């Protein structure tokens, strides 16, 4: 019934805007609109100033109806009342709770963590930026990773999904732990526990532990995750046994938000064992690698050069 009413109103309003309605249809629209306008209750706190909204609607209709020589004296009421009527049915307007106060959280050269109002904990890598509401309201818990990388430990709440926007992808969870690693060219979501849904540009993939979603070159793909990422290495001591320098550099890139430059790619195959303390400064880790490999690492802001 409601769908039929919505369809009929949309059809008649569109037909009227093209000057295709009969006199009977115009009378029907005008009488209905006037009746709704006279009976509707306007919530100014949620909908804004009624005069300004009505004027905007009226001005928009005047611009749109260029073929009509005359405009019904009740056209303003018809537009406003029709929109309000459909809003009451939940189609065009859904009253929302007062806007959530947004807060920012940034890191410089070391990772840091923050606890959100729902108990979820976010471990933010160095040189990263995160936005979140002071208190979650409404049906969803929405946050944004603006820059860099983070590890999420989300408090379980089936009634209020947790949604993270990071660049062009959205990650939706109920309660789980996972990494999001974002750079200029790609974004990765790596699941440690629970189930995660990742979507972008009409495509969607579901992930379970040990799986990763990769968004690169405007494509979203699913693959197995590197075992090194299946822990919270932002807040956990990590020992990389008999691994390659390439693997160590990958971890350091995400943990400290830096990029590496090297003249000779062959150095990436250098074998080594490294211990990375959870609160270690990047310079301390690089000193350890320098000692083991005899390579020289120099930090220039967010870039590390390897000689």
Structure description:
The chain is α+β, with helices and mostly antiparallel strands and 307 residues long. Helices cover 29% and strands 33% of the residues. The chain contains seven helices and 19 strands. The protein has a seven-stranded mixed beta sheet, with no helix packed on it. α4 crosses α5 (75-88).
* Overall geometry: elongated
Helix content: 25-40%
Major β-sheet annotation? 7 strands, mixed
| N-to-C span | 73 Å
Beta strand count = 19
* Secondary-structure class: alpha+beta
Number of helices: 7
Low-confidence stretches: 65-71, 89-97
The overall pLDDT average reads 81
Strand-residue proportion? 25-35%
H/E topology pattern: HHHHHEEEEEEEEEEEEEEEHEEHEE
Radius of gyration, rounded?
28 Å
Adjacency order of strands in the biggest sheet: 1-4-5-7-8-11-12
Q: What key phrases describe this protein's structure?
A:
307 residues, seven-stranded antiparallel β-sheet, 29% helix, 33% strand
Short description:
By secondary structure, the protein is α+β, with helices and mostly antiparallel strands.
Sequence-ordered SSE layout with sheet pairings:
Elements: H1 2-17, H2 23-39, H3 44-47, H4 50-64, H5 75-88, E1 102-106, E2 112-115, E3 121-124, E4 129-133, E5 141-147, E6 149-153, E7 162-166, E8 169-173, E9 177-182, E10 186-193, E11 196-200, E12 203-207, E13 211-216, E14 219-224, E15 238-244, H6 245-256, E16 259-262, E17 271-276, H7 282-293, E18 297-300, E19 303-306
Helix pairs in contact: 2-5, 4-5
């Amino acid at each position: 019934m409601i769908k039929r009413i919505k369809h009929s109103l949309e059809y008649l309003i569109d037909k009227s805007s093209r000057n295709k309605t009969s006199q009977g249809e115009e009378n029907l629209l005008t009488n209905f609109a006037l009746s709704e306008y006279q009976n509707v209750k306007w919530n100014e706190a949620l909908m804004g100033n009624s005069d300004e909204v009505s004027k905007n609607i009226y001005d928009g209709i005047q611009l749109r109806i260029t073929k009509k020589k005359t405009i019904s004296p009740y056209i303003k009421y018809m537009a406003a009342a029709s929109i309000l009527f459909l809003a009451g049915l939940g189609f065009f307007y859904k009253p929302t709770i007062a806007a959530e106060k947004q807060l920012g959280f940034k890191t410089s050269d070391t990772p840091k963590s923050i606890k959100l109002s729902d108990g979820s904990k976010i471990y933010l890598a160095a040189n990263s930026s995160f936005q979140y509401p002071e208190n979650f309201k409404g049906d969803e818990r929405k946050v944004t990773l603006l820059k860099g990388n983070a590890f999420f430990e989300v408090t379980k709440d089936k009634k209020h999904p947790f949604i993270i926007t990071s660049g062009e992808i959205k990650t939706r969870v109920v309660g789980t732990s996972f990494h999001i690693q974002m750079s200029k060219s790609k974004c990765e979501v790596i699941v440690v526990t629970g189930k995660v849904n990742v979507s972008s540009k009409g495509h969607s993939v579901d992930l379970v532990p040990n799986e990763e979603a990769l968004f690169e070159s405007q494509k979203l793909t699913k693959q197995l995750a590197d075992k090194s990422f299946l822990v919270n290495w932002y807040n956990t001591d990590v020992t990389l046994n008999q691994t390659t320098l390439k693997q160590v550099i990958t971890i350091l890139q995400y943990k400290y938000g830096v990029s590496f430059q090297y003249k000779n790619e062959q150095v990436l195959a250098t074998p080594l064992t490294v211990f990375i303390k959870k609160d270690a400064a990047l310079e301390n880790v690089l000193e350890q690698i320098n000692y083991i490999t005899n390579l020289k690492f120099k930090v220039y802001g967010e870039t590390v050069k390897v000689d």
